[in-house]
Amino acid sequence: MKTYGRKDLPESAGVVILGGGLAGCAALLAAVEDGHDAILLEATRDIGGSTVLSSGLSAYAGTDEQAEQGITDSLDLLRDDILATGKGHCDPELVDLYVENSIDTYRWLKGHGVRYGHVHAASGQTVPRSHPTDTSRMLELLIEAAEPLGGRVFLGVRAERLIREDGRVTGVRIESARDTVVRAGAVVIATGGFSMNRDLLDRFAPGMAKAFTAGGAGNQGDGLLMGWDLGAGVIDTPWIRGTYGIYPSDHVGEHGTGIHAIYKGGIAVNAEARRFCDESLPYKVVGDHSLAQTDGITHQIFDQRVLDAADDEVAIFDFRGRLALGMLEQSDTLEGLAEKLGIDGETLAATVADYNRRVTAGEPDEFGRQYQAGGAGELFPLDTPPFYAHPSGTVVLATYCGLTVDTDMQVLDVFYEPIQGLYAAGEVIGGFHGAGYMTGTSIGKSGIFGRIAGQRAGAYAAGHTSGSDNADEGASA
Ligand SMILES: Cc1cc2nc3c(=O)[nH]c(=O)nc-3n(C[C@H](O)[C@H](O)[C@H](O)COP(=O)(O)OP(=O)(O)OC[C@H]3O[C@@H](n4cnc5c(N)ncnc54)[C@H](O)[C@@H]3O)c2cc1C
């Protein structure tokens, strides 16, 4: 994979894409496949952003992998699940766009060599549809496919302002000692979210003050601010949530993400050794409940049967990997486990006994839990020693809110009017998830919408050729 530095920057390009995560790489390849001139600028020294730190799960329905596992799914069910998880706050047109383009994008990615592993159920899914993949490899494949078609990637190039002339975005100003400008026929903002910008988090999500944060180092909200600066609408900020399950001293995600033993049949207890919610709920909701407990730190409790359901291909289910890293406490008795956690052993034993009794009797759970995760997976009693515990905090991994866009991925201003020449895709957009996030739809939307943004921005740029002078005279940011 060949990349370029700042000194190689051209004076102009048809489409200038900001950000080298999945949305940006998909946009780059889609634009050049349609015969357009396109370049990608990445602020940091590496491609990847949050995409390569992620668990790599994409949500599709009706795939080869699901068929091989005998999973019956459909586009209608996918749509219903996304809308239900978003609690009526999703833009239904964006949800339709995702659903209608999902299988085509899945096949496009597979056609470029992307491979998916064993499909799992996770948050918000009534059937298993989390497709794991190696995201670093996925981005390499997209860039390698774009190269022979003229797509080039520039590293260490941070865009700092958009340039608008005569009502149209015509370029990007680059952060540098010199006033460097790259002119563009169209610009795609694919700069990811702002999970690594505590000031923006405090502004939009004060409830996350006790949460840890993780994400790509460059995920500072630059694209959001650049769009906002030109009058773009910003939507879904009230729904920023943290993800439950991160190991407290690993909140920077050195070992990937946290784990979700709760979604394989485990339970979660607080510092008082008591359960506090229905653990099958989306992990953002479990995160909210967990942040309301003492110190915001709780424990996932499970037994050998749950451990045996581990899958080392999927970070959130790699329980054995965490055991090897010393991140799980282990004991033959619940009392012994509690002692290691510094919580009350008698209460923990009573909590588990009560849970087991209800599960065995098929009695309604005190929090309404019926499934392992979402609407899938049968519950079973936690009675097979040894018992395990994973101390768990809540971490903001992604922000799921941002710029308003239409179904061409064109950025809309505060009055829902298109900003000419400006497109956006990936985590930087809002409107799609609404009040809740179904696992796999953030990577899913980066691929699906990134591809659409590249196509549409390419078509726009082809109709609006930009000047090629690398001067910023007359340009206004
Ligand atoms: C630990 C973790 C686990 C996750 N697991 C999942 C999962 O399993 N499934 C799922 O759907 N989602 C998951 N997510 C969320 C998901 O990974 C992201 O939402 C998604 O990958 C975002 O893709 P993107 O291309 O929009 O942004 P990113 O991949 O974050 O890429 C954005 C890029 O833009 C660059 N950039 C920023 N500002 C500028 C600028 N001014 N100029 C140029 N470049 C800039 C950044 O450096 C970055 O490289 C997870 C996130 C994390 C952190």
What's a concise summary of this model?
The longest helix is centred in the last third of the chain and has 23 residues. The protein has 477 residues and is of the alpha/beta class.
Walk me through what this model shows:
The chain is α/β, with parallel strands linked by helices and 477 residues long. It folds into two domains: 299 residues, FAD/NAD(P)-binding domain (3-Layer(bba) Sandwich), CATH 3.50.50; 154 residues, Succinate dehydrogenase/fumarate reductase flavoprotein, catalytic domain (Flavocytochrome C3, Chain A, domain 1), CATH 3.90.700.10. 30% of the residues lie in helices and 18% in strands. The chain is built from 13 helices and 18 strands. The strands form four sheets. Strands 1, 2, 5, 6, 7, 8, 17 and 18 form an eight-stranded mixed β-sheet that branches. Strand 7 and strand 8 form a beta hairpin. Helix 11 crosses helix 12. Bound molecules: flavin-adenine dinucleotide (FAD). The site of flavin-adenine dinucleotide has 45 residues, from helix 1, strand 2, helix 7 and helix 13.
